[in-house]
Amino acid sequence: MDETLASTGEFGAIERITDGLRQPASTLLGPGDDAAVVAAASGSVVACTDTIVESVDFRLDWSSPQQVGRKAAAINLADISAMGAVPTALLATLSAPAETELAVLEGIGAGMAEEAANLGAGLVGGDLSSANQLVISVTALGDLEGRAAVTRSGARPGNVVAVAGKLGWSAAGFAVLSRGFRAPGAVVNVHRCPQPPYAEGQRAAAAGATAMTDVSDGLLADLGHIAAASGVAIDLRAEALTPDDRLIEVGSALGADPMSWVLTGGEDHALAATFAVAAAVPEQWLIIGEVTEGSGVTVDGAEYEGAQGWQHYR
Amino acid sequence: MDETLASTGEFGAIERITDGLRQPASTLLGPGDDAAVVAAASGSVVACTDTIVESVDFRLDWSSPQQVGRKAAAINLADISAMGAVPTALLATLSAPAETELAVLEGIGAGMAEEAANLGAGLVGGDLSSANQLVISVTALGDLEGRAAVTRSGARPGNVVAVAGKLGWSAAGFAVLSRGFRAPGAVVNVHRCPQPPYAEGQRAAAAGATAMTDVSDGLLADLGHIAAASGVAIDLRAEALTPDDRLIEVGSALGADPMSWVLTGGEDHALAATFAVAAAVPEQWLIIGEVTEGSGVTVDGAEYEGAQGWQHYR
Predict the structure, then answer these.
(1) Which ipTM did the prediction report?
(2) Which of B167, B218, B203 is CA-nearest to residue B275?
(3) In chain A, which among 55-84 make CB contacts under 8 A with chain B?
């Protein structure tokens, strides 16, 4: 019989999930005590938290437990990168029904640890609770290495707007999975687990990015947050946002508009930033528009008429 | 009509919950960006995370939303104190059904912020997700102010064992509420929201505590964690653990054994620690036993025969 939480108990399950976790040098005290201790060399710590919920943000018939764990980690690690910081640690709470197979939780834990380890961060603490639905809350910590945090409020008229990473791929993957298909893998896998361009966050910060965010709710919505926080308007050039050929193919097969995925699809966790001048934009970034006076986000000077970005409860 | 999450949407609700939050000087960047930035003056950060789930850890017909928020914060802030650290910040994720009244979430947020503010910590970030059950995950951060962390592994034979704070009160309160009563308030309110002796954690650390933990699973269970981590045995003196008169009265009224609440009742979030010598034990602490060679936890030299502590899924 498969082991479940009910057969193993809370402490047995935690031991199995944390067993064999390797820790980087920044983990001064790892899991197993009342709290962990993590190095914060530059005298401050960057911290964020985000949750994914079964049936709302992931499905175990679409994704492996490892992919779910990697996604739970990635959506937080991308936020750390979006501040220009380097991730140092993750903490995670799993709330799960008693009949959950232990192998599922071990897979989720392994996925989180793997995504963190790829960036030199440790999975340093966590908690396991009974609930009637699988809920995964992750907190990520990071270090600014002496740089100033890049907030959403520093965009100024005349700045250029640029992105790094994929746009619309996760939404295309979701559309494919929703219709009962499993291919093409290129888009489906991005929906299963985003591939944030983590290193580009630090690169943009070092290059003097004036504002930055990750694209979690959709490009227009997230640039809208920068525009609102900075008190500016943003105008995008549609030509610079031409969907990748693979998105055009998927859109054609499903009868969907790939441009709406690019502009309003969330969950890609690309990075969007503003820079004082085009010459400051790092090599891997694509210039897609400019900051002007006013408010709101437009495409070629006009309001986008398509669907809006993701918001819980709406 | 009462406002609900469904009528307000995610962003509107977050705005209402974070509106007017005051931040201490240690909050270098508060809520509203991709991540917060918190001072970590001594070059490291202490971090822990814990979750409470509706119907498992709290009931909204037993507790006000504020009490639930304070409890979610307190169980984490107590873990920071148990390392000898000073809390600096909280992050929280709320997963809630769409029909949840906004006033409930505002109350929970206010309770968390209040419990944190009492200790000089800020509520610096969070997230709101749709789920079919109310799940509150909190991460607490703290600063060691240059002291070494007090772990669970430093207890040595010959050390004395001491506690600060209430023991058994939360379990007595739970017993009262479970039978449909609402009084006495003294025990019921401790179940609704624990009253950890936060400052005693730093005091014990400064006094040279060799090991420390908070009492969340029950005194025997949590001292068992210290014994196991330290490779020692612990023997308690029953006389030193005589239940408070109010627990004896409640036990008498309900036909329950108050000593079992003291020894195995969780959720009080008292602090338990070991010290090299009795003279080192701070004034507010009560000496309850000693560390010996061997393993396990005994009372007057014998294994306790009553019920064991709390464990999820068991």
Answers:
(1) 0.95
(2) B203
(3) 56-57, 79-80, 82-83
Task: Specify the pTM.
Answer: 0.95
Q: Is A165 left (phi over 0), alpha (psi -120 to 50) or beta?
A: left
How far is the C-alpha of B85 from the C-alpha of A225, rounded, in Å? Answer: 35
The Cα A269–Cα A188 span in angstroms is 15
- A232 at B interface, C-beta within 8 A: no
CB-CB under 8 Å, A49 with B125: yes
For the four alpha carbons of B301, B306, B309 and B314, in that order, the dihedral sign comes to positive
Q: CA gyration radius for chain A?
A: 20
* Overall fold of domain B5-143: 60s Ribosomal Protein L30; Chain: A; (3.30.1330)
Q: How far is CA A78 from its chain centroid?
A: 5
Homologous superfamily of domain range B160-299: PurM-like C-terminal domain (3.90.650.10)
CA-to-CA distance for B169 and B187, rounded, in angstroms? Answer: 5
Render pLDDT for B2-60 as a digit per residue (tens, 0 to 9): 889 888 888 888 888 888 889 999 999 999 999 999 999 999 999 999 999 999 999 99
Quote the CA–CA distance of A171 and A223 in Å, as a whole number.
Answer: 17
Q: pLDDT tens digits, residue range A160-191?
A: 999 999 999 999 999 999 999 999 999 999 99
Where exactly are the structural domains of chain A? 5-143, 160-299
Assign A5 a pLDDT band (cuts: 50, 70, 90): confident
Q: How far is A41 from chain B (nearest CA, A)?
A: 5
Residue of B nearest to A35 (CA): B48
Q: Which of A41, A141, A213 sits opposite B43 (nearest CB)?
A: A41
Residue of A nearest to B75 (CA): A34
Which candidate, A204, A222, A211, places its Cα nearest to that of A269?
A: A222
